[in-house]
Write the structure tokens for this entry.
Amino acid sequence: MSPRALKTLRTLALLAALFAFCIVMFGAFVRLSNAGLSCPDWPTCYGKATWPGHAQDIARANEAFPDRPYETHKAWREQVHRFLAGSLGVMVLAIALMSAWRRRMAVAAVLVAAVFATVGVVMYMRGEYVVSSFLSALAIALPLIAAAMLDRPGAWRVGVAALAVIIFQAMLGMWTVTLLLKPIVVMGHLLGGLATFALLAWAALRWWRVGTPDDRFAALRAPVAIGIVVLVCQIALGGWTSSNYAALACGTDFPQCLGQWWPQTDFPQAFVLWRGIGVNYEGGVLDMAARSAIQIAHRIGALVTFVYLGWLSHKLARAGLRRIGIAVAVVLIAQVLLGIGNVHLGLPLPVATAHNGVAALLLFTLLAALASTQRLPATTESP
């Protein structure tokens, strides 16, 4: 790849990562403002490419979906979120094509995957669900196969694999609506958005030459990788808390819960991942004991995460990655304060949305730490 093309690719990757971060924030805003089912169909909104605007269109929408009355202030949020996600998909497709450039089989796999994904959406809209699912599965598999076979360094493979992740993320967005906010799907959609952001951020970091010329930081790779796993588990717990409407299960008490150190809980019911289909989960279906169990588990996870990442930030700073160590510590403290603020202030929308965004920033600092411990290829133009 020529230096000019490489510059274009790494700039596009950086922009896509920033855009993905914004979508994570906006997605949290949509979810936390209870707008996740404001468009009862997918990918249209009450049958419209945008959303109903005229009185006649609104009347038709309410007639077509009597169980889901149209709410303008919510519908636009959901549909704009879909538009943003679709725009990111186009950017990721461009990155995948550039990453696979001059590898004919890989380029062909990426293009065919894009066609299959598009046709799959059309088939879904026509009610051909089996055909749609088959084409979507192929659209996910092809970029993963191409990435595995690509004879280039890791960032290039990640650039191709990101296409598979964002296609699967689109399917999760569809299931979020069709399965009526099923918690396991909503949590998966959150993790899918963060996975897309993480892959794009990782590729951008490596293409921007973040790394080390030798193995001086090799001993830090395992602790940082463990930190990423710990953080992802905690983010999943946070997603489970939000999707089960358990954020205020302990009231506005912290560190106690409902005025007690250990109130009545029901952990077995709290973590049932699949409860069948056909149930509307908007507002939550669990009783207070189960929701309290989820909130307590999230708080315990937060404590474990805080202790481990606090230790890791100190270790990074002592080992020579001082700026990254400080960044991890600062973002970690901000995240903890936002979490406590969510409880004490009664889950205000700006604070709750920021809590999701800072979680993504914390993930980015750990990715930057991991990239800084990795040996750089001799040149990014080499395959």
